[in-house]
Amino acid sequence: MRVLAAMSGGVDSAVAAARAVDAGHDVVGVHLALSAKPGTLRTGARGCCTIEDSHDARRAADLLGIPFYVWDFAERFTEQVVETFVGEYAAGRTPNPCVTCNEKIKFEALLEKAMALGFDAVATGHYARLSVVDGVPVLRRSADLGKDQSYVLASLEPEQLRHAMFPLGGSHKSDVREEARERGLAVARKPDSHDICFIPDGDTRKFLEDRIESRPGDLVDAETGAVLGRHTGVHGFTVGQRKGLGIDAPAPDGKPRYVLSLEPVSGTVTVGSAEGLGVRTIEADRAVWPSEQPLDGPTECVVQVRAHGGVVPAVAEATADGRVTARLREPLRGVAPGQVLVLYREDADAGDLVLGSAKIAATA
To answer: What range(s) does the tRNA-specific 2-thiouridylase MnmA-like central domain occupy (predicted)?
Structure first.
């Protein structure tokens, strides 16, 4: 097959490309330039799309003996990832930009261009297992549960997964690093990327304040309804947040307060005790079924709402208009509208299977 290897400049994508070459595919490497000013992105070997990352990717491609190109996706990244991120926070929701990037950039924009150029598949360094059985994609957790990235891939459409390759799905990160060392790849010891690549200093609140107009509102106690303070905009908060609330007086019981909900129209930020964070029901919409199999009636599953969050058992139901209701067997804390709900079916023999995903709209 003709395979386009997406090379971020990190160890995972380099080894994934190497394995694609070893498998006998006709491989071409490509690095995505995602910023018109790449020097403003996170540097120090921690990002995924800086100038130094592109150089690392090129060196890896040279060692593998494959052609290498840099494709400029900066404008599309800004519009579909950065602006979406800002808009979601302005609306009182908590987005995951990595999910959006995978969905809109790596497996929409990149795959579209790859297909137009005659490639059969795009290979990436994601830790997830993927197979196609009778033309139907089957997406599962990776063998290394600590690095599993099936969560950020669960929003991909079946047709996108049919043209995807995840060569690292059956491996553990320690083995991938050792393989990179044995292959002579300079990125073998390069640290993993962290945080949000387009927020250089990691200060999300300041990043949003520079882009969202100030809309003051009240900080309200969930139990008494008392106004505890003022703030400059709901974009500065997320459900489950404890620090930086701007409340001077301690709670009567001396316990910490947490953000329980956000109301962007009135600007109200409701705070309360940790017990108030417990969620039993999740309502979500815009469902995607990677294996083309929507839920058929109430379905026992486990759900995950953060990329590296815990899972809880649940019973989920879906409707024809793309809505999903998950009733949790035990409460889950810190669930916010805008996050992605991913449904898994436990499979002891082959790893958890991704049933589907949906965007969280409300909780109870």
So the answer is: 206-272
